[in-house]
């Protein structure tokens, strides 16, 4: 028999609403008047008048078991009651079996996840991070009092360790069918890293279905708010070009470390402004490794069976279609390039709010001006040094988002391009797959 949670819920709902039973019973007045008690004999399927000497057909004192006109009706009633009782019993048994099967199914799934994560934690011992209980997590966050933000895999809360250190605590979501892989990815990747441009993991909690990750606290939050805040000029969120340049360089160094500075190569697969955190000095830290993949350093291309991963607008072409090449660390390079172009433009690369159709897709717009050697007309460029920084960021980014992965630079080369002379940089071929069609603002997803 097929089983689904929907069918169980439907049956339960029907029973919980209740139902009405009605039947015709024999007139028990004559029996009661004769001093007997009216009852039902399951063996004969007749209503009987139970007297002091023995059961009678209708009233006490009659000889034998005469069948009165009400006997047929009584038999019908008996059959109806018996069928109803049997039906209810059958439904109860079915519900019990379904619920038991459901409990066993979900217990097995939960137990499998528990075993997967515990096996991982054993294999990676001794970890360089501390394991906390869920009670500790509640204590350090003051029962999750201050919420810092929301990510793809959970909410982030402000916390404080016993030594007074401030932390950001990410409480992971529990999604249907989730096997603990996001948790394993984060702990496996970050626990073995140590770099100024990669966020530090202080500890974790894994207690049945309660999972949390404890990171160093970043006072300035994510890079996202400094790029896309439309009121940034008034709220002083806009960063000057020196700071933007240093942030782009710091992110490049963090990615270079992940790609070639660790014992194993770590591919992030979700580089975007939201996942770049800034400390009090605006030093960038790469965070959120829920989609990361660890591979051998000698592996140039990884399996494409892992399925598309990342965020729309930053995903490299080869990640969603093998026609563009193999998936590798060059996929992170593409995401990095798209993100830096958004830093330069101070907006999403696709912007439906502008009036000029040619200015909708910022990479097209900026490439055209580089080709014609026109002024970029960007805000806050104060002097020649700012102009040089911006041009280096743009040219480097355009190389990073080349359609062919083999045409993209490594992150080591990206650092060299950013730190080198502007005169040594060549404008790359036009790297774009297409010019996105213009959509009305009402249809835009933002």
UniProtKB/TrEMBL annotation:
Presence of the UniProt keyword ATP-binding in the record: yes
Pfam families: Pkinase, WAK_assoc
Positions contributing to ATP binding: 170
Location(s), subcellular: Membrane
PROSITE patterns: PROTEIN_KINASE_ATP (PS00107), PROTEIN_KINASE_DOM (PS50011), PROTEIN_KINASE_ST (PS00108)
Entry superkingdom: Eukaryota
Keyword terms of this UniProt record: ATP-binding, Glycoprotein, Kinase, Membrane, Nucleotide-binding, Serine/threonine-protein kinase, Signal, Transferase, Transmembrane, Transmembrane helix
SUPFAM superfamilies in the cross-refs: Protein kinase-like (PK-like)
Domain Protein kinase stretches: 142-433
GO molecular function: ATP binding; protein serine/threonine kinase activity
GO terms for cellular component: membrane
Transmembrane segments: 77-98
Family listed: Belongs to the protein kinase superfamily.
Protein name as annotated: Protein kinase domain-containing protein
Record organism: Ficus carica
